Amino acid sequence: MSNDPIINDRAQSLLKTLIERYIQDGQPVGSRILSRESGMNVSPATVRNVMADLEDLGLVKAPHTSAGRIPTVRGYRLFVDNLLTVRPLRGNVMERFRDELHRLDDPEELIDRVSNLLSSMTRMAGLVMLPRAGSVQLKHIEFLPLSGDRVLVILVVNDQQVQNRIIHTDRAYTQSELQQAANYLNSEFAGRELDSIRARVLQHMEEIRDDMKQIMQLAVQLADEVVQTSQTADYVVHGETNLMSYAEMADMERLRQLFEALKTKQDILHILDKSIHAEGMQIFIGEESGYEAFGECSVVTSPYRVQDEVVGVLGVIGPTRMAYDRVIPVVDVTAKLLGSLLTSE
Amino acid sequence: MSNDPIINDRAQSLLKTLIERYIQDGQPVGSRILSRESGMNVSPATVRNVMADLEDLGLVKAPHTSAGRIPTVRGYRLFVDNLLTVRPLRGNVMERFRDELHRLDDPEELIDRVSNLLSSMTRMAGLVMLPRAGSVQLKHIEFLPLSGDRVLVILVVNDQQVQNRIIHTDRAYTQSELQQAANYLNSEFAGRELDSIRARVLQHMEEIRDDMKQIMQLAVQLADEVVQTSQTADYVVHGETNLMSYAEMADMERLRQLFEALKTKQDILHILDKSIHAEGMQIFIGEESGYEAFGECSVVTSPYRVQDEVVGVLGVIGPTRMAYDRVIPVVDVTAKLLGSLLTSE
DNA sequence: ATTGGCACTCTATTCTGACGAGTGCTAATC
DNA sequence: GATTAGCACTCGTCAGAATAGAGTGCCAAT
Questions:
Q1: Are β-strands A309-319 and B138-145 bridged in parallel, bridged antiparallel, or unpaired?
Q2: Which of A28, A61, A166, B197 fits as disulfide partner to A68, beta carbons 3.0 to 4.6 Å?
Q3: Predicted TM-score of the model (pTM)
Q4: B66 contact to strand D (CB, 7 A limit)
């Protein structure tokens, strides 16, 4: 996909120090500083020549005639792909969190904490997609008559998730009628996939007692919904407000769009979704994500695995000018941590 | 509580037009404009004299020597308490929403929509506290054995709320053991309050079969938790991002604190809580709420009732300089709407 | 008690010039 | 041929000065 421009070692090295420097203090970097900082005996004039080349290649740009250079999106791209040296985390940092998070019973709570962890370690916003269930197996079903023609259906799936919904029937069913229907479904189908149950019930509809038909149909319909919902991706965000502290986010309209997106979830999910099928970490820099609203933002993601199978994605969102060398290992290690915590349950 | 300063009709009228004008366009209001706008034949010089009085009383202030006046918190207070003429909504506006929201089965969904409604009608952030249940009645209980020593407990309370939790037992219980326990609880206690069940089970503990004792204890413990959670207040916000469009919110640090508070919920809940026991609408202007972070914000709330009993609060939060005459009726009518929708279910 | 008039204050805007940072280009150098 | 020094030039920023406009406070007249 990328036609990496071919640039020599010196240019690469200069680009690297330029971006590192820019990430550090957010100011355009001039030739003098670069010549001094780079540690490779070159005069500012030479640096200027190199910079002109890099600018032609679209890797850096000058905000105005007599300012230093700042990286472009393409520059960042080249940087993270080829030039970056990540700083590994100190080994025991994650161990501490592992111990702390280990005791949690509730997976939702775990997700929540991990999102918090991401946000606090990076001082940006942490995103954790809920793990999707590979299959939806019926554990148990229960019908409870409510007042009038309403019936509460409780579905236990995958050993611990409980789903429930109210359905409206044509007539009021008695407790024992509903009990029969539930017994039938439980004895026939417990432990099987909702999808296959659906097919089977519909297929053998004629064998079902007339007065139960409607309740069965509604149950199937509910099962559909449950499969639907459990396949609908969702995520948890924390630390959005961290983003407000960055100077890059000063534009209110932009900021608003970003927060809107984080709340609406749709666009962000789309980005996370791109990452779920990727093997490893993904980094979306600036408009690469394809959304105008995230112009000044980058997203760093990593899929996480339960028993070697990818079940979700997590990551952070922050300003394009972020310390990639620190953020990348954090996201990486956190994904492994979450995976292992979910597996051990 | 308030020692309303005594000011004559003319001063009141001038204060009223001043605040109306300031709310309209956010600029300090000068004597000339006021003299023209007020419609009461007075010269700018007279107005200036009155303004000086009002300033002494702490009702208005001048941002600097030669600017017009803007209202202080006390000024707003006097305004909303005594001077405000609300604009009633056009009658059919709410009827439309009532029809639209009427079909919703799920009370959570309803709350969500109402919060959205508040936010979109006022272009500020809408808050709806979840209705608290007056009592928690057991409808049905169910135990499901999971792998190992874990048991899934499902509690249906108040006719349609389903709560569930995993408990850890000393040993693995069989399906039929659990069934017996559930049968016992259901036949004895369905329809009764969790609180009284708790007491009764503990009281008659010796009558319970030995091998069931632990499961009963855990069930009681869970019931405690459920009562606990159902008493823990919570709310739904929508349209937070609307707040970003106001010039008053330009200060990032303030904005950040505000968003933090909306997400953390604690402080906002505290404010809403003050309002739940009040008879009617409450308005917190600026620092009146007692929180520094909401300095430039006002909160307008109204309790809502189900069958004449207050079960929750809703409202909006926005800049102090808001169109109270429009916001107040919206909040008022929405509270009535939500109440009637919840009652009719 | 109200009003007109006037001096005064403060803000916002515009313009200016000086300064510094940094570039691009060219000619000299290695 | 690559590198470098030198120099003219551009642009942004800052401080200061000038100006206009809005609005006040106060005093004297009504």
A1: unpaired
A2: A28
A3: 0.90
A4: yes
The Cα–Cα gap between B320 and B298 comes to 5
CB B222 within 8 A of CB B155: yes
Residue among B146, B244, B260 whose CB faces A160 most closely: B146
Determine the Cα–Cα distance for residues A324 and A85; give it in Å rounded to an integer: 9
Q: Does B246 touch chain A (CB under 8 A)?
A: no
Smallest CA-to-CA distance from B220 within B204, B193, B201, B192 is with B201
Q: B303: helix, coil or strand?
A: strand
CB-side exposure of A246: number of CA atoms within 13 Å? 26
Q: Tens digits of per-residue pLDDT, A234-280?
A: 999 999 999 999 988 888 899 999 999 999 999 999 999 999 988 89
- Write the CA distances from A110 to A105, A107, A230, A287, integer angstroms: 8, 5, 18, 31
- How far is residue B311's CA from residue B309's CA, in Å, rounded to a whole number? 6
Report how far residue B43's alpha carbon sits from residue A335's, in angstroms, rounded to the nearest whole number: 72
CB B336 within 8 A of CB B280: no
Q: What angle (nearest 5°) sits at the alpha carbon of residue B79, between those of residues B73 and B83?
A: 175
Query: Min CA distance, B161 vs chain A (Å)?
Result: 9
pLDDT category of residue A4 using cuts at 50, 70 and 90 = low
Q: Are A256 and B241 spatial neighbours (Cβ–Cβ below 8 Å)?
A: yes
Q: Which residues contact B188 (CB under 8 A, 6 or more apart)?
A: none
Helix (H) or strand (E) holding A161: strand A161-168
Check: CB of residue B162 under 8 Å from CB of residue A152: yes
User: Collapsing DSSP states into helix, strand and coil, what is residue B66?
Assistant: coil
| DSSP-derived 3-state class of residue B46 | helix
The β-bridge partners of B303 are: B313
- Other CB atoms within 10 Å distance of the CB of residue B189: 19
Say if residue B4's pLDDT is above 90: no
* Residue in the structure block whose two tokens are 């102090």: B320
- Please state, in angstroms and rounded to a whole number, the distance separating the CA atoms of residues A75 and A58: 7
Query: Which two tokens mark B196?
Result: 């009284």
Average pLDDT over residues A2-8: 63
Nearest chain A alpha carbon to B168: A105
Asked whether A203 and A135 are in contact (CB, 8 A), the reply is: no
Asked whether the beta carbons of B170 and B212 are under 8 A apart, the reply is no
Residue type, A310: V
- Do residues B226 and B162 touch, judged by C-beta distance below 8 A? no
Q: How confident is the model at residue B267 (pLDDT cuts 50, 70, 90)?
A: very high
CA dist., res. B54 & res. B49, Å (int): 9
Contact A188, A176 (CB under 8 A): no
Q: Do B154 and A159 touch (CB under 8 A)?
A: no
Report how far residue B290's alpha carbon sits from residue B285's, in angstroms, rounded to the nearest whole number: 10
Name beta bridge partners: A29: A69
pLDDT digits (tens, 9 = 90+) for B204-240: 888 888 878 888 888 888 888 888 887 889 999 999 9
Residues of A in Cβ contact (< 8 Å) with B156: 144, 152, 154
Q: What's the confidence (pLDDT) of residue B167? A: 84
Number of helices (H), then strands (E), belonging to chain A: the values are: 12, 10
Using CA atoms, how far apart are residues B144 and A160, in angstroms rounded to an integer? 9
Residues 94-153 of A with CB under 7 A from strand D: none
Name the H helices within chain B: 9-25, 31-37, 44-56, 73-78, 91-102, 107-122, 175-189, 194-203, 213-231, 252-264, 266-276, 324-343
Q: Are A84 and A17 in contact (CB under 8 A)?
A: no
